[in-house]
Amino acid sequence: MVYVRKDAGTLTAAERRRFVKALLEVKRRGEYDEFVRMHLAYYSSDGERGLRTAHMAPSFLPWHRQFLLDLEDALRRVDPVVTLPYWDWTRDRATTSAPWTADLLGGNGRRSDQQVMTGPFAYGEGNWTIRVGVTEGEFLTRDLGRRRDPIALPTANDLEQALKDPVYDVRPWDSTVTRGFRNGLEGWSAGRGSASWRNHNRVHRWVGGAMLGAASVNDPAFWLHHAFVDLQWYRWQRRHGGARYLPAAPPGRGDEQHGRVVARHEKLPPWDVTPDQLEDVGGIYRYA
C-alpha cells in the first residue's frame, strides 16, 4: 500500500509525537547509529580515489533515496503508520518555525557551545547521546542561521534554477559541472565562501553544528531535509517527462571517471539496487 510523506509544518500533534517516539526507539535499539556509520563510510569527494556514490556524483539522489527508505522501514517496524516528514526550507525559514519546535526537532543550540537544549533530542533528555561521529562530543549541536557569519536558506527561486534544467547530469559527473539538475540541487558551485554553497549544501551550512560534516545524520534534521531534496527529484521527473538518470552507461576505460560513478543499471553500493530501480517510487510512497 502506498503511504504518504507530509510537510512537517502540517503534521498534527499526534503525528509529531508518533514520529519522535519511533525515531527515539530506533536510536535506543542501536539501529540509528548504523545509519550514521553508513553515511560516514560513503561520504567521499571528488579528490578521493575509487567509486563515489553518496556525494559529488550522479548517484547522490538515488543513494539518499534508498537511505531514506531504509530509515523509514526502521521507523515503520516500530510504528507502521509513521512516515518521514519533509522540511520545506523555501517556506519555513525561521529558527522558531517548523520543524524547530519543542515537540518535533527542538530548537537552536546555545551560544556557548551550540548544544541543543530543547526538544526530544536534547542531551539533557537522556535519549540522544552521540556515539558515532567525527568528534568526541556526545550532545547534538546546531547553529541555525550561523550567528557569527549569517547565511540565508535557499529560496524558491534558487530551487527553480535547478528544477528547470531538463538534463539530469553531465560529464564529468562530479562537483565541478555547471549544468545538470543533480549538481544544481546538490549545490556545488564555483566561488568562495557562502556564495559557493547552494540548495542542499547551503541548508546543511545553515543548520550548522552536527549537520556540517559526514556525521550529519546525527541530527534528525538530516532526514527532513533530505526528504525535501527527494521531493525535488520527484517533482523534476514529473516536470521533465521522460528525462532519465545519467549516465546511462558506465564511463569507458579511457575516461577519468571510469570506475568512479554509478551508471543507470549498475548496482548502487551498499545495496543490491540500481538507480534505474529507484527512479519510480510511485508504488511505495507519494508526497502530500
Mean pLDDT: 96
User: What Rg, in angstroms, do the CA atoms define?
Assistant: 18 Å
- Tell me the span between the first and last alpha carbons: 15 Å
Structural class: mainly alpha
The SSE string, one letter per element, is EHHHHHHHHE
The first-level CATH class name: Mainly Alpha
- Specify the biggest β-sheet: 2 strands, parallel
Uncertain stretches: none
SSE topology:
Blueprint: E1 3-5, H1 13-28, H2 31-41, H3 60-78, H4 156-163, H5 181-186, H6 199-207, H7 221-239, H8 275-278, E2 285-287
Helix pairs in contact: 1-3, 3-7, 6-7
Gist of the model:
By secondary structure, the chain is mainly alpha-helical. 32% of the residues lie in helices and 2% in strands. It has a single domain, classed as Di-copper center containing domain from catechol oxidase (di-copper center containing domain from catechol oxidase).
